[in-house]
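job 3f2a | input accepted
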Amino acid sequence: MKIISWNVNGVRAVVKKDFDACVAQMSPDVLCIQETKAQDDQALEALAAMTNYHVYVNSAVRKGYSGTAILSKNKPIEVSNDIGVEEFDTEGRVITAEFDGFYLVTVYVPNSGSGLARLAHRKAWDKAFQVYLKNLELKKPVVLCGDLNVAHRAIDLKNPKPNYNKTAGYTQDEIDGLDSLIESGFVDTFRFFYPEEIKYSWWSYRFNSRAKNVGWRIDYFLVSQSFTSRLKDAFILNEIHGSDHCPVGIEI
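job 3f2a | predicted structure (252 res):
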C-alpha cells in the first residue's frame, strides 16, 4: 500500500498543472492533500476527475484558505473532520480516515506567520493535536501525514542558523512541539530509513529557490512506534512539480 501526502497550494490551481498525470505517475492507494484553498463544493469539483478514488474534504470557514482532502481507492471504515476543539476546528486542517489496521490522519498545521504573530496559537495547537492523536492511538496505530510547518533539525533546511528563532517553521517552540510528538512514541518515517539524507519538500517561490535546492523539509509521515514493522519505505518526490511543495510518502 502506498500513501502519499502533498501540500498542493491550491487544489483548483494544481489541477491545471498536470495534476492527473502526476497522480497517475505516483499511483497512490491513498492521496492526502493539504492547503486546498477551496470550499467543500469547490474542492470536490476540482477533484471530480479522480474517479478511481473516494474523495473526502474539509474546508475552512474562511474562503480560499487552508483546507485538506483525502482520496482513497478503498473506502475507509469511517472518516471524520477536525479534532473536537472549537478553537482549532474552523480552518479545515484535519481529516481522519479509519482503515482496518490503523488510523490515517492528514493535517495542515498552522503556520506561525509573519513576525511569528501566530506562534502562541501554534503552540496551543501542537498540544491539543498531540492529545487528539494519542487518544486515537489508544484504539489503533496512527499514521500521521501532512505539512507540519516545522523543520525538525538543522539537516532539514538549507540555512538553519539565520532562520533559527526568527522564521516561522524553525523556532525552538515549534521544534519542541515536534520533539514532544516523537518523544510520545511517534516515528519520523523518512529519518527511520534515511537518518543522514538531505532532502527537502518545500521551496520558496522567491530567488529561484527550487532550482538551487534552497529548501526545507516540513512535510512528513509520522507513525506510531508499533507500526514501524509494517513500513517498507519512505520517500520524498522532488521530481513532482505543480506546487511549492513536493509530495512525500510511505509504502507499507
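job 3f2a | The chain has a mean pLDDT of 98.
job 3f2a | closed
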